[in-house]
Amino acid sequence: MGEHVLVTGASGRNGAAACARLVALGLPVRAACRHPERVPVSEVEHTRLDWDDPETHEPALRGVDRLYLIVHERLRNGPEIARAFVERALRNGVRRFVVLSALGVETAVGTPLHGVEQAVRELVPDAAFLRPNWFMDNFTGGRYHRTITEEGVIRVPAGDAEVSFVAVDDIAACAAALLAADTELPGGHLVTGPGALGFADVAAEISAASGRPVRYQPLDLDDPDLMAELGVPGADPRMARTLFSRVLSGGEAVVTDTVRALTNRPATSFPTFARQHAAAWS
User: Fold this and answer.
1) Full DSSP string of the chain
2) Which residues does the UniProt record annotate as the domain NmrA-like (predicted)?
3) Residue ranges per structural domain of the chain
4) Is the N or the C terminus of the chain less surrounded, counting Cβ atoms within 10 Å?
């Protein structure tokens, strides 16, 4: 294994976690993103990769035989980016492709991630697609974290529905396992936590771990002020309504054993995650 594993989006939480997992397996890693100085893993080769600057693509792929492709889910031109980059990767001799996708993307026709999957699959029929559920880590950063620490509340239009939240580190471990495997494991891999729980349960677990009282405030999916209640006033509500409609229908409660199957260890439970990250809410 003299050639590198290339991880795109390496300064993001999924990319950085994957770099750390690959390094732990002893694989040579090239971490690529627009700002490689922001990659929080030192034992990797850092390189600049800007989707809008094709001059950075060839150097990133030179000497690479395995690729973990992370294209941001909201990039409208994500499918075009993926197609062009994978075509170049194939010309450069990349032989293993793992793509970060999302649970339910196969039915989300018209979304950028659906297009990314389709583009890669047409070029690389034996590519592997990681389709994780909601990240547990959403509660340790971003707007959910902000309302937890500032107001002691989690606000979402999810009713009593349950979600099989998964830890980003578990997703990274699955990606590393797929990239390091001796044989291809193509197709979609649904990645979830070991059980499903509601947002009230999440609030209770964060309260227990941090000592900070946190409550769940369910919102009305049809509220005209939904996006303001979610902390993003003025934003288009269609994506949020589509997402939470799936949650309310039970579509995010599915539980799989993918983490154990790929990594030979159980997926992280939310209580364990909350204890490990209690300082984030203090």
Assistant:
1) --SEEEEESTTSHHHHHHHHHHHHTT--EEEEES-GGG-S-SSSEEEE--TT-GGGHHHHHTTEEEEEE---TT-TTHHHHHHHHHHHHHHTT--EEEEE--TTGGG-TTSHHHHHHHHHHHH-TT-EEEEE-SBGGGGSSSHHHHHHHHHSEEEES-TT-EE--B-HHHHHHHHHHHHH-SS---EEEEE--SS-EEHHHHHHHHHHHHS---EEEEPPTT-TTHHHHTT-TTS-SHHHHHHHHHHHTTTT-----HHHHHHSSPPPPHHHHHHHTGGGG-
2) 3-218
3) 4-132, 137-164+194-253+265-281
4) C
